[in-house]
């Protein structure tokens, strides 16, 4: 329902073979990048809300109940510009990574990006009104000034997510 979804809970499930019981999962799909070529995924760090306040994005928001992210990359016959045509029948393949939110934070911290450092990065980006680099291979900031909420994200390579995932793989559509 809507209240669960806004609190970072799209689904709750268990995988007994991985000792995961009733985990709270936020599903994230790169639906606008539907041609199968996307090699990254972004996590929202900061945004400007409707009352013009700068707030934590869903990744840094500590009120969210999210324990895991199910990150998904689509392959369809459509280009990035045709994302709006994607429907169930057009999906040819889904690459996925089930990644613990805590493990992502650990990985970032291992590379010098604590939650405080991420917030400082956002402050710097907003003060200079331009993105900054991290100097960490496969990790960078993005700044989307074209949107009203001007979100700042941390972008990480798909390979990193797959490396730190508790479960990763793909689902391929079977021809009938």
Report on the structure:
The protein has 176 residues and is an alpha+beta fold. The chain has 4 helices and 9 strands; from the N terminus they run αββββββααββαβ. It has a 5-stranded mixed β-sheet. Strands 4-3-8-7 form a 4-stranded antiparallel β-sheet. A hairpin with an 8-residue loop joins strand 7 and strand 8. The relative contact order is 0.19. The mean pLDDT is 93.
Q: Which SSEs are present, and which pair or pack?
A:
Layout: H1 2-6, E1 11-15, E2 20-29, E3 40-48, E4 54-56, E5 68-75, E6 93-100, H2 101-110, H3 115-128, E7 139-143, E8 152-157, H4 158-164, E9 167-172
Key terms for this structure?
alpha+beta; 9 strands; 4 helices; single chain; 5-stranded mixed beta sheet; 4-stranded antiparallel beta sheet; 176 residues
Short description:
The protein has 176 residues and is α+β, with helices and mostly antiparallel strands. 20% of the residues lie in helices and 34% in strands.
């Amino acid at each position: 329902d809507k209240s669960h979804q806004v609190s970072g809970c799209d689904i709750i499930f268990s995988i007994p073979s991985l000792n995961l019981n009733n985990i709270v999962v936020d599903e994230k799909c790169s639906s606008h990048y539907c041609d199968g070529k996307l090699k990254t995924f972004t996590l929202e760090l900061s945004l400007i809300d409707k009352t013009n306040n700068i707030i934590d994005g869903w990744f840094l928001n500590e009120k969210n109940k999210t324990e895991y992210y199910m990150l998904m990359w689509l392959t369809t016959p459509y280009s990035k510009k045709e994302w709006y045509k994607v429907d169930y029948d057009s999906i040819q393949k889904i690459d996925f990574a089930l990644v613990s939110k805590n493990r992502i934070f650990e990985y970032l911290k291992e590379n010098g990006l604590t939650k405080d450092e991420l917030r400082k990065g956002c402050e710097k980006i907003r003060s200079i009104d331009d993105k900054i680099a991290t100097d960490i291979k496969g990790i960078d900031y993005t700044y989307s000034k074209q949107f009203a909420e001007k979100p700042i994200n941390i972008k990480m390579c798909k390979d990193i997510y797959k490396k730190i995932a508790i479960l990763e793989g793909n689902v391929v559509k079977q021809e009938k």
